[in-house]
What we know:
- The complex is a heterodimer.
- Chain A is an alpha/beta fold.
- Chain A has 13 helices and 11 strands.
- Chain A has helices at residues 3-9, 48-51, 60-63, 89-93, 113-122, 135-141, 181-191, 195-213, 215-226, 238-250, 270-292, 363-375, 379-386; strands spanning 36-42, 52-53, 80-81, 97-104, 151-154, 169-171, 256-261, 299-305, 325-330, 339-340, 361-362.
- In chain A, the strands form 2 sheets. In chain A, strands 1, 4, 5, 6, 7, 8, 9, 10 and 11 form a 9-stranded mixed beta sheet that branches. A two-stranded antiparallel sheet of chain A has the order 2-3.
- In chain A, helix 8 (195-213) runs parallel beside helix 9.
- The radius of gyration of chain A is 21 Å and the shape is globular.
- By secondary structure, chain B is mainly alpha-helical.
- In chain B, 61% of the residues lie in helices and 3% in strands.
- In chain B, a hairpin with a 2-residue loop joins strand 3 and strand 4.
- Chain B is globular, with a radius of gyration of 24 Å.
- The two termini of chain B are 18 Å apart.
- Chains A and B meet through helix 1, strand 6, helix 7 and helix 8 of A and helix 11, helix 19, helix 20, helix 21 and helix 23 of B.
Amino acid sequence: MDRRKFLRNGALFGCSAAASPLFAPIAFASAPWDNRLVVIILRGAMDGLDAVRPVGDADWAGLRPTIGGLPGPDLTGFFALHPALAHLMPLWRAGEVGFAHAVSTPYRDKRSHFDGQDILEAGVASLTGGQRDGWLNRLMQTVPGISAETAFAVGREQMLILTGAAPVSAWSPEARLRLSQQTRSLMEMVLHDDPLFRSASAEALAIVDSIALGSEADDVAADLADSPMMAGVTANGDHIKLAEFAATRLRGETRIASFSIGGWDTHQQQTGGLTRSLTALADTILTLRAGLGPVWEKTGVICMTEFGRTARENGTRGTDHGTGGAMVYAGGALRGGQVVTDWPGLAEADLYAGRDLLPTRDVRAHAGWIMRGLFGVAGTVIENAVFPGLDLGADPGLVL
Amino acid sequence: MPFDPTLAAIRFGYGLSPGVAPPASSASMLEALLGPDSAAADWPIPTYSTLIPATRNLRSLTRERTRARNADNPTQLAELASKVSALQDANRAIKVSTFAHTLIRGSWSADAFRERLTAFWADHFTVRAAQGMLQHLVTPFVEEAIRPNLAETFPQMLRAVVTHPMMLSYLNQNTSVGPTSRAARGGRRGLNENLARELLELHTLGVTADYGQDDVRELAELLTGLSIDENGDFEFDARIAEPGAETLLGTTYAAADSLDNIHAALDNIATMPATARHIATKLAVHFVADTPDSGLVDAIAATFDATGGDLMAVYGTLLAHPAAWQPTLAKVKPPVAFITSALRALAVGPDALTGLANGEWRKTMERPLRVMGQDWEKPLGPDGWPEDAAAWITPQGMAGRIDWAMSAPEVLRPDLPDPRQFVRDALGNLAPDAVIFASQAAETRAEGIALVLTSPAFQRR
């Protein structure tokens, strides 16, 4: 069976691991690397120019007369952070969070969320080539010795980025699976003769049990409770549950996790909307950092969005769909404390199509260099298999 | 091989119901398809064409709103914003009600084979909304382009689907401009191969057939001209049509830039032997087994070939073949079908669905379906939803099914049936002893119902 046919026939949501008896713990295969990668998709188009503000650019203030108002902490003299990201400053100073600016995917001009996200997650220059798998899955396809536990799509959103022929796991912390002991036993009986149903349910229950009872979950909970940085974090949002669950898996055998955070499409009253979303993003990163404990040192986190937003604010104190934007990265394995950019400027003539921040680097190249650094994947593999047709270019120096 | 009413209801419908009799024979299933569409009459779903004027209205209001915003006119802006949001709410209500009516048709129709065929062809010709403004129009597209053609010919259905505005916008055909067309000389952008590629690969010949990139390119040039007018209706726009003859798959289509030319090519491709085999395989895989009996596929393909894709003849061959009645339930119900058949077995009244408030609908239907892996009307690509059992019965998929089975039935039918009765209603003479035992041994009614619904005997078909 060729790969396309395999895809058509459906390994869309990943295969389950080998059959295991009901209620037994998951048997984890050994992972191919020790480093960890988390990719967070920011759905809705984050305004990079507001998240990481080029306050040193003479044209910036004029473009944002109302929405750039409240000042945030200084980063480099030229760039300053949005005040909602101020909680990340200790990480910035420790070199554990950084930014890449004036980046984008190859997507241009139509500025549709749907196509933009598909291109971001497929990791291709255009959707017309019929590519239907995601770039993290293609990474997995190039590596021998992976198991379904190696990569986890977290949350109820479908993650095209992890979809494809390589086996991956998916779990939504929303799935609660609260069953009494009696119902569990009866379910075991009902499913017993069908290996497919039996093993999928056993794994589901094992995941739920590991959240409730597993030592990784205990470690995550203990580290979260001990972390002073978690003091300002409101712990009940969906994004926190996703980050906690991802941390739990990554402390075990999982090496790659991906999930998404929405709420970036700030066409109006951006100050309020973006503050909420950036707070969620900062809290997510802080939760990962605290929850991963010692594993944070081996971790890289990449936060990417489908495109940036217009350089000028619009008539409703918001911004519309644009082109170039920012990538946020974090993790103990990455070199933070820097804003990596070939800054194009914001003068009228410097803008893309007279309206958007001009992208000067393909965001895929940054992701590619991070995978190369964390996992030792060859550059040619990244340029041919993971991001077909990409030119990785010079090393941006994102990995320690 | 004997026709079996229980198997017919489960494999070719949405399962058993205490309120609807299973089919009496294969002949009666086929006759029903030729008769009036009573489910559509009882539970109407508006067509795309009836809904598109309101969308056009929304589009122009959105533009006016942008102008008011730029003109800094807060009074006008507030007025327009409230009009826009009222129309958006109305569209959301349409999306929910077309989904609810789809579920009600599946759970109450005596002619459930028609509902299964609708879902099969809607998946074969997957479209997604290309813009937020079109999100409520996917099921109305199915109602317009697919359902009326279920019992016609494959070429007729292909024409209806390929020229439909929802397909044209989903696969970018409406923005594809012939490289040497009049419009291209005016500076508009070029060819887009998306629809041409998927038409050959997914809709007709299949990816294993003998065609190449040149055929895709020629078909893409041939399809230029298919477009959408300012009202959102289909139009053939000669200005974007590529002039000159095109040759693909061994046939040259004349130079005239006309819709007739495109229809001729579609008819031709729709009846090629590779198309017959591709459709036959998909039908057998969908209804019978992930790896179906080759004799079954051969028989369906032969009928397709011999009749020029007459769909009634094709279904007749499927239902007449012994392999279609193999007793093993080899397929897994995808999440929407799982929920539909649960509603059918529970005899959930239509009012219980139409009466759900927006938030309850999200909680009872949309979110659980996402956890189960089948986000309503949002498959990841034009290849639609997966067929193989392992794609659905994953840990997360199974957890979603168990959670739904534990909680949703009580919301939809507060007077839950006795699980000892329900196991008979849902599984008839196919109820395994273990499931009968579990239904009696459960601590509560809700758990007893959930155990029946999560049993492989119920989740397979």
